[in-house]
Fold:
Amino acid sequence: MGERIKLKSLGAVGARVEDINLSQVTPDQLNALKQAFADHEVLFFEDQDLPPEAHLAFAERWGEINVNRFFATVPGHPAIAQVVKEPEQQGNIGGYWHTDHSYDQIPALGSMLLARQTPPVGGDTLFASCTRAFSTLSEGLQQMLMSLRAVHSARHVFGAQAEYSEAMKGRLGNSDQANVDAVHPVVIRHPLSGKPALYVNPGFTLRFEGWTDKESAPLLDYLYQHIGRAEHSIRYQWREGSLAFWDNRATWHWAVNDYQGSRREMHRVTIEGEQLHPA
Structure:
């Protein structure tokens, strides 16, 4: 029998993994973590003293690293994105519901975000389950959504004309690479769990394929409100040394911007995914 890990469910989505050192994960523990990741969609680890090399090494045990083309990187470690907000800055990165990389033809599996410096108060992250949200829709709406595809883009977020590109100067770059859109099923069959999951998000989804923006807006807005409901989501409070590993195909997240005047620095490693298929 494989080595067990200690899990504590956090409710609608996610589980805390206790008493584990991510720099010394055994093969049996890794297998147990992979099953827990499929089951819970976000895994949280605390008190992890991980230098950048160990952060990358743990991520590489899950797949190939995706080097984000828009984020500033940690000096000396181009595969680690630096997500930072200085005390004098007003805007934060990811301060709205979204899922990373849905604008790519093959979206990333997920991201491992490690807290390097946290504010004394605030700076939490919300997570929502898109599988749970799908399961609570009516059967009629589920069936209709499974026939649809949606267009995703990064142009309005990371492109040269993005509304807050000036505010994010120095933290985001390569706006010329935000030039390719992607089309994905609105309901995907999750690659790990096999569950149907809603795959639209207010950060990067533009419209349903074959529909206008105006026609798409009412239904997309309904889905966004539904996914983000309290019973589908949790709020995670960071400490220095906390690491969250979320599945981009099954969840949303929102970095709460409520710590003006304090510094917050997170290091993010993203793992390549696979082609998404309809449910």
